[in-house]
Design goal:
By secondary structure, this protein is of the alpha+beta class. It has three domains: 3-32 and 175-286, no CATH class; 37-160, Sandwich (Jelly Rolls), CATH 2.60.120.260; 298-360. Helix 1 packs across helix 2 (192-213). Strands 1, 3, 4, 6, 9 and 11 form a six-stranded antiparallel sheet that branches. A hairpin with a 6-residue loop joins strand 12 and strand 13 (172-175). It is built from nine helices and 16 strands.
C-alpha cells in the first residue's frame, strides 16, 4: 500500500474518531436535563401551595402520633407540579389493609399501572413510572381507583425524573425515558454540526501533538503519527460498549457525570501515550529540545514583554481615535483589553527580573 493511501486512511479514521467522541459526549453526558426530586406528605398537602394538591376522595387521619391521609372513596384525585415535560417516577409510601386490594393509576384517563400490597398493615413503597408523553409542564392530574371497599392509607409521595446509580466509579444516573438511538433523550436531538466540527478539531489536535512529540524521537513523523493514532482507540471502544449496554440492556437511558467521562477519556488515552514516551523519547533529544525551548522563551522574556507593552500603546491610540468619533462603548472595551495586556507585559518584566537575578547586579 502506498504511503499517500495510508495517510488518507488514517486521516479518515481520525475524522471518524473525533466524530464519535463528540457523539458519545452528547448522548452519554446530558447537560440539558433539568433534574428534580420532590417528596410530599399527604397530611401536609395544604402547605405545598400549588405544587401538590389533593382534590376529592381523601380524608386526613392520625394514628400513634403519625399524620396520614386515607383514600375514603373508590376514586381519588391529586395534582402534582412538574418544572418541565418529562418522564417521572412516583414512589408512593402507602399501607394496604386487604390482600385483595388493588389500586389502578390513571393519567389522562389511561391506565398506567396497578399497585398491589405485599406487606398487609405495614407502610411500604410502591413505584409507578409515567412516560413523558403523558406529562406536561405545570400541574398534572393523577387519578387513583380502588378495586375493593376496604381502607387504604397514604403517607407520602416522592416524585423524580432520575435516579442516581450508586457506584464508586463511573457515577451515573438513569432517566425514566425510553431509549433513543440517535437522540440524547426524548425530543432533544444530537447536534450533528458539533460532531462534524469536533472531527476536524480532533484531527488537528492529533497532528499537532504528533508534531510536538516527533522531535523528541529518532523516528519518522509518519511513524509517530501512526503510532499516536492507536492511543485514541481505547476510549472509543470503552464508550461504544457503555453506549450499547445502555441502549440494548435497559428501557431507560444512562447518563454519566462529566468528570467520569473525561476521566475515562484522558486516562485510557494516557496509557498508550505513557508507553510511547518510555519507548521512543530519547534522553539526549529531550534535553536538546528543552534547551532550545529555553532559548526561545525564558531568554526572550524582555522581547515578549516589549511586544505586549507596544501593543498596549497601539490599542490606547485606537481607543482615543474611537472616542473622537463618539464610539464610547467599543473604546471602553478596547481600553479594558489594553490594560489587561499591559499587566501581562509588566508581569513578564517582573519574572525576568527575578529569574535572571538582576537584583543581585544592582
Amino acid at each position: 500500500m502506498k504511503t499517500y493511501t495510508k495517510i488518507a486512511i488514517y486521516l479518515v479514521l481520525s475524522l471518524v474518531i473525533g466524530f464519535l467522541l463528540l457523539f458519545f459526549y452528547q448522548t452519554m453526558v446530558d447537560s440539558q436535563i433539568t433534574k428534580f426530586k420532590k417528596e410530599y406528605q399527604y397530611a401536609c398537602a395544604v402547605d405545598y401551595e400549588d405544587n401538590f394538591l389533593l382534590l376529592n376522595g381523601w380524608k386526613a387521619r392520625k394514628e400513634s402520633g403519625i399524620n396520614y391521609t386515607s383514600m375514603d372513596k373508590d376514586r381519588a384525585i391529586f395534582l402534582i407540579f412538574l418544572p418541565s415535560k418529562d418522564a417521572i417516577s412516583l414512589a408512593f409510601k402507602l399501607r394496604f389493609h386487604d390482600p385483595n386490594q388493588k389500586i389502578k393509576v390513571y393519567v389522562k384517563q389511561k391506565l398506567i399501572d396497578v399497585l398491589r400490597g405485599s406487606k398487609i398493615g405495614e407502610w411500604e413503597e410502591q413505584r409507578v413510572m409515567i412516560n413523558a408523553r403523558m406529562m406536561k409542564k405545570g400541574l398534572n392530574k393523577i387519578e387513583l381507583k380502588k378495586t375493593e371497599k376496604t381502607k387504604l392509607d397514604f403517607y407520602s409521595i416522592k416524585i423524580t425524573n432520575y435516579q442516581d446509580i450508586k457506584l464508586t466509579f463511573l457515577r451515573a444516573y438513569a432517566v425514566w425515558d425510553s431509549t433513543k438511538w440517535f437522540r440524547k433523550r426524548g425530543c432533544i436531538n444530537v447536534n450533528w454540526n458539533i460532531c462534524f466540527l469536533g472531527s476536524f478539531i480532533f484531527t488537528g489536535i492529533w497532528l499537532v501533538y504528533s508534531a510536538i512529540f516527533w522531535p523528541l524521537t529518532e523516528k519518522k513523523y509518519l511513524y509517530i503519527l501512526r503510532l499516536d493514532f492507536w492511543t485514541y482507540l481505547p476510549p472509543v471502544l470503552i464508550f461504544s460498549i457503555l453506549f450499547l449496554i445502555s441502549k440494548i440492556a435497559y428501557s431507560y437511558t444512562f447518563f454519566y457525570y462529566k468528570f467520569d467521562f473525561f476521566l475515562i477519556l484522558i486516562g485510557s488515552m494516557c496509557i498508550g501515550k505513557i508507553y510511547q514516551m518510555t519507548q521512543y523519547i530519547k534522553k539526549d533529544m529531550c534535553i536538546l529540545r528543552l534547551k532550545q525551548t529555553y532559548e526561545c522563551t525564558i531568554k526572550k522574556y524582555n522581547v515578549y514583554a516589549n511586544i505586549f507593552i507596544c501593543l498596549f500603546i497601539v490599542m490606547m491610540l485606537i481607543s482615543a481615535g474611537l472616542l473622537m468619533y463618539e464610539l464610547k462603548f467599543p473604546a471602553e472595551r478596547l481600553t479594558n483589553v489594553a490594560f489587561f495586556i499591559l499587566i501581562i507585559g509588566i508581569l513578564i518584566k517582573l519574572i525576568r527580573y527575578f529569574v535572571e537575578k538582576e537584583y543581585n547586579m544592582e
